[in-house]
Amino acid sequence: MTQLTEHSAPLSSAAALERGRAATLTSAVLRGAFAAGLGLGAIAVLVMAMWITSPFPDSGAGGALRIAAGLWLLGHGVELVRPDTLSGTPAPIGVVPLLLMGLPAWLAYRAARDALEPDEGRPQLTGLGAVCTVSGGYLLVGASAVLYVGDGALTAHPLRAALTLPVLTVLSAAAGAWTAHGCPRLPLPQGLPGAVRRALARTFWAPAGRRRVAVAGRSGAAACLLLVGGGALLVGASLVWHGDPAHTSFVQLAGDWSGRVAVLLLGLALVPNAAVWGAAYGLGPGFALGTTATATPLGVVGTPALPSFPLLAAVPDGPGTPLNWAAAGVPAVAGLAVAWFTVRVAAPPFALREEAWSARGTALTAALGGVVCAGLTAVLAGLAGGPLGSGRLAAFGPVWWLTGAAALAWTVALGVPAALLLRLWRLRERRPKDLPAAEPLPATGAGERTATGSGAGERGATATATGAGSGGAESGAPEGAWWRAPWRRPAGRRGAGAAAPGPRAASEGGEAIGGLDILDALDVAEAGAGAGAGGATGAGAGGTSGSGGTSGAGGTGGTSGTGAGAKEVFDPGFEPYDFLPAESWHERGAREARWAAFKEASGGLMADFPATPGPLTPGPLAPEPPSLRKGGSDTDENPGGTTP
C-alpha cells in the first residue's frame, strides 16, 4: 500500500506535464490559425463591402469571397491566374502589392511572439517549437484558401502556392520568436568548414566584428529607406506633373463611386511598389514597361505596353531632360547616408585619434553598409515587380539584380570616400583660439587691512589683504574663482560701473546692518578677518579701515582692526562707520535682515523658511574638546560667533 502511494504522485505529475505540453502546442497552433483567419477576414470585409455597394456585381457572394481569398494569397507572394480572358489564354498576375503583404507578415510575427510569452502553469515552448506550431496552424488556413479559390475568377496553382506561401509565414514567425527571446546573437553554423568557422570567429563573430556588422546593418538599412523614400518623392512629383492623364485614367476605370473607391484602395496598396520603381529609376537601370520597353532617366526605350491605371499614367515619356537626370540625387543621398551612419560611431564628434576606428576599419564598414543596402534594394525590387498578363505584359517592374548592382555601385563609390573624408575632418587637430587679454580695471583705491587675535596661549596670526579697483580685493581667492557664487561677489564686480549699494533696512522692524549691504559686508569680512590660535573672528567688515580706524569684537584675547593709510574700499562715495558688535550680529532683527537679503539675492529660488529656527528639543551635549577648554576660544564667550 505504501509503494502504491509513493508512486501515485510521480504518475499524476507526469500526466499533468503531458497535458500542459499538449495544451501549449494546441494554443500555438490556434494562434497561427487565428492570425491567418484575421488577415483573411479583414480582406474579405473590404471585398464584400465593395460587392454590396456595387450597382452591377458580376458574381454572387461566393465569387466575392473567392476574390478575397485570392487577394489574401497574392499578399503572400502567391502568383494568381485569370483563366477567363478575351484571348482565351490564362493571364498570370504576379505583381504583389507590398502594402497588402505587410498585414499577414505582421500577424504571423505577433502570433509567434505571443506564443512564447510565459504562461503560469504551462511549460514554455522553445523558439523552434513556436515557429513550427504557429506556422503549421497558419498554413492550414492557407491550404484551405488555395483549395477554395480553385473555381473562382482568380485561381492559384497548388504547387506554386506550396512553394511560396510558407516562405513569408516561416520568416515572419522566426522573426517573432527571435524578438521574444530578446534578439540573441546567432551562433556559427555547424556545417561550415573549420577554416571558415575560424575566420568568421576572428572577424564577424568577434566583439569588434559584431559591432561593425551592427553599424553596417544600420547604415545599409538607413540608405535603403532613403532610396525608397526618394523614389516615393519622385513618383509624387511625377503624379503632380502628369495630373491630367492620371485623373483621366482614374475616371475611365470606374463610373460609380464604389468602383472608384476600389481603384483608390488598390492604388494605395501599390504605393510602396511605385516607390521601389522610383528608386530603381533614380539608380539608373529603371524599370520595365513590358517586354519591349524600359524607362530610365535617359528616356523611355522601346514601345511601352501600359494598361490604364493612375499610377502608370505618371510614367515619364520621351527622351530624358535635366529634370529627369536630377533623379540621380536620390542614390547620392543614400551613399552619403552610409558614410554618415558609419562615421557617427567610428569617429564621434570631438573624439581623439586614439579612440576612433582606423581608416581601414571605417572604409570596410562603409563598404559593408553598401552591401547591405544593395541586398535590401534587390529584395524589394524582386518583390515589387512581376507579370501583369501574357505576351508583352509578362514583365513589369525593375530587374532585381540590375537594381541591386546599381545600388551597390552608388553606395560604395560615394559612401567609402565620404566616410574617410568625414573621419579625417572629425579627427583634425583643434587648436584653441587666442583669447584677447582682459583689460585691467582702473584702480581707485588700495589699502592694507590687518586683524590680530590673541588667545590664552599668547599665539596670534595676521591676515593681510590688499584691494585694488572699485570693488576692493579679497584675501586668498583669485578673481572669478570657480567656487564663488554670484551673490557672493563684491559690489564692484556685479556690474560694470555699478555703485555700491546703500544701506538696507531690516525686514519686519529689524535694524539696518550699518551703511553697507549685508552681502558686501560678508565679502569684506571674509577678505579681512584674521583668525588666531584662539579662534579670533572679526565681526562685520573686520579688516576695513577708514580715516580713523575701526574696531571689531573678537574672542577671549580680543581682536582689533587697524587702518594703515587705507582708501575707500568699495567706491569713492563710501563713508566709514562703526561696525556692530558681535552680540548685535546675532540678534533677531539682524538675522532676519540677513535672511531677507539672501532671499532677495537668490531671485526667488530660496524657499520661504523662517530666519530663526524653532525651539530645539534638549538632548545630550557632546563633550567639549580639551584643546578648546585649555586654549580658550571666542566661542566660549560668544556662542554663535561664527559668521553664517
Note down, in words, how this protein is organized.
Strand 5 and strand 6 (299-302) form a beta hairpin. The chain contains 19 helices and ten strands. With 644 residues, the chain is α+β, with helices and mostly antiparallel strands. The protein has helices at residues 2-53, 61-74, 98-115, 127-148, 158-180, 194-202, 207-241, 243-253, 257-269, 271-283, 322-325, 329-346, 359-384, 400-426, 518-528, 582-585, 588-601, 626-631, 634-637, and strands spanning 80-82, 91-93, 155-156, 287-289, 293-296, 299-302, 396-397, 446-454, 460-468, 559-563. The longest helix is centred in the N-terminal third of the chain and has 52 residues, at 2-53.
Concise description?
The protein is of the alpha+beta class.
The percent range for strand residues is 5-15%
Largest sheet: 4 strands, antiparallel
- The span between the termini is 87 Å
User: Which parts are unreliable, with pLDDT below 50 for 5 consecutive residues or more?
Assistant: 1-11, 443-570, 627-644
Q: Largest beta sheet: what is the strand line-up?
A: 6-5-4-7
Structural class: alpha+beta
Mean pLDDT: 74
How many strands appear in the DSSP assignment? Answer: 10
Give me the number of helical elements.
19
What gross morphology would you assign?
A: globular
Q: Any idea what the radius of gyration is?
A: 43 Å
Helix content: 40-55%
List the secondary-structure elements in sequence, H or E: HHEEHHEHHHHHHEEEHHHEHEEHEHHHH
